[in-house]
Amino acid sequence: MSKQPRSLWQETYSPPTFKPLHWGEKTKVLIIGGGIAGILTAYRLHQAGVPYILLEQGRILQGTTAHTTAKITSQHGLLYQKLLRREGMARARQYLSANEWAVGEYERLSREYPCDFRAEPHFVYSQKDENRLKREMDALAALGFEAEFCRELPLPIKTMGAVCFPHQASFHPLKFLGELARDLNIRENTHVLELQGTNAITERGGVHAEKIIVATHFPFINRHGGYFLRLYQHRSYLMALSGVKPMEGMYLDEDPLGMTFRSYKDLLLIGGGGHRTGKEGGNWAELRAFAAAHYPAAKEEYFWAAQDCMSLDQMPYIGQYGAHTEELLVASGFNKWGMTGAMIASRLLADRVMGKENEFQALFEPKGRLLRPKLILNALSSAAGLLNPSPKRCPHLGCALKWNKAEHSWDCPCHGSRFSSKGECLNNPANEDLYH
Ligand SMILES: Cc1cc2nc3c(=O)[nH]c(=O)nc-3n(C[C@H](O)[C@H](O)[C@H](O)COP(=O)(O)OP(=O)(O)OC[C@H]3O[C@@H](n4cnc5c(N)ncnc54)[C@H](O)[C@@H]3O)c2cc1C
Question: If you measure from the C-alpha of residue 67 to the centroid of ligand 1, how many angstroms do you get, rounded to a whole number?
């Protein structure tokens, strides 16, 4: 595998290792993907005594989860005013309580799995629009949530204030998930090439299961669910600085192209420079310019980048993979809020395979959630990539790849697959290398 910058989390913790699949196996539930969504779901099935196997193509916890900012919060930008308008009071309230439940669940589990868990507030600030902040405060008040409005923030930039969720948290994601994964039934270095019904085909034999959960970040099966139309990927850049006073609290710009801040021990993490994968963006150059301007004494200790799957209605897809695939389930589209999203997914999917009712099932069910104007825009953006005559094509659906100068990779602007300069697949939905 070609060298990509390793995150602070990867450099400070090594997860346990597991053997590959040893020829064919049979189980009740097969989980594909050893990121946060797959591992938390496996953990819940394990606790409930449900037979399962988790297959991971490489080593666990080296995908997007290894490159996150790891804020645990139910404050997902200024989302609640939108949810209230579009989804109505009951569903907006459910979204909030599902995420607040997830925050509490991390607090509970972190007592068992030490992970530098730190209870702290989360703030979403605006640099230009105080009215949006006020509207969010109103939406939260209508939902019965006690947010606070703050004018003074410890940031080196001018803001119009921020909406604060007081009881949120941060942690070391790999310490938490690695320790929690230690006793789970995991097979590493086992790449699922294809599904035939509820049989998973790998180079090391097959697994027959009653139910399959696809937790591969971008769902890689194209013939169901239409995820290649309902998701796109957005890339962001991060860096950890020493020599700066660590901050109390975690901060995020309401502008999706703005910055994010949190501390880990004596390091300050800053993020930004984002763009849709395959397009141009500020990348690390923007962060380095920011650090030079505002933290001239800081030293760059780690830098890394990652991308997440963005759903068109800003809520994750958790539930039945396609309209007619009762045995095939999915967890994806976390919109850069996969800490709480994956915790919710683990409970929903475990309940589902055990035939238990779950109050949040209908809210996150992928079926029927088609926002037509956004779907058309996303499809048009993909069509532009398909029609581009460039000779370098993505093996996923044939879109033209773009060279990413900052990261030396070939990136797909349609669905976000990425390949190293040697052609190794770095990010799915492509499920094979470039020169396969
Ligand atoms: C820059 C950035 C910052 C973020 N910050 C936050 C934050 O502060 N708070 C928050 O809540 N969320 C945050 N997120 C979002 C969060 O990190 C992600 O939503 C989450 O990590 C996604 O987890 P996952 O399990 O879906 O995917 P992954 O962690 O990518 O795991 C998927 C796994 O599936 C495996 N796989 C794929 N295909 C196959 C196959 N065919 N066979 C076998 N295995 C396969 C992969 O190897 C991988 O290990 C951030 C995201 C980004 C990009």
Answer: 8
Spatial contact of 278 and 234, defined as CB atoms under 8 Å apart? no
Q: Enumerate residues 6+ apart whose C-beta is below 8 A from 361.
A: 319, 348, 351, 352
- Domains of the chain, start order: 8-68+175-229+314-364 (3.50.50.60), 372-427 (2.102.10.10)
Give Cβ neighbours of residue 125 (< 8 Å, ≥ 6 apart). 133, 153, 155, 159, 160, 161, 162, 251, 252, 253, 254
Q: Are 111 and 302 in contact (CB under 8 A)?
A: no
Query: Is 68 close to ligand 1, i.e. is its CB under 6 Å away?
Result: yes
Say if residues 383 and 376 touch (Cβ distance below 8 Å).
no
Chain centre to alpha carbon of residue 74 = 14
* pLDDT mean by block of 10 residues, the chain; 436 residues: 84 98 94 98 98 98 98 98 97 98 98 98 97 98 98 96 98 98 98 96 96 98 93 97 94 95 98 94 95 97 97 96 96 98 98 97 91 71 71 90 93 94 94 84
Residue 214 tokens, joined: 């696809």
What is the CA 188 to chain-centroid distance, rounded?
21
Contact by Cβ (8 Å): 310, 333: yes
pLDDT at residue number 1: 47
Q: Which residue among 79, 336, 348, 407 has the greatest number of ligand 1 atoms within 8 angstroms of its CB, and so is best to mutate?
A: 336
Atom of ligand 1 nearest to the CA of 339: 11
Alpha-carbon distance of 194 to 255, in angstroms, equals 39
Q: Which residues contact 220 (CB under 8 A, 6 or more apart)?
A: 192, 214, 428, 429, 431
Note the pTM of the prediction, 2 decimals: 0.96
> What is the four-CA torsion angle of 399, 411, 276, 349, rounded to 10 degrees?
80
Q: Is the CB of residue 173 below 6 angstroms from any atom belonging to ligand 1? A: no
Among 76, 72, 143, 64, CA closest to 101: 72
DSSP H or E segment with residue 353: helix 338-353
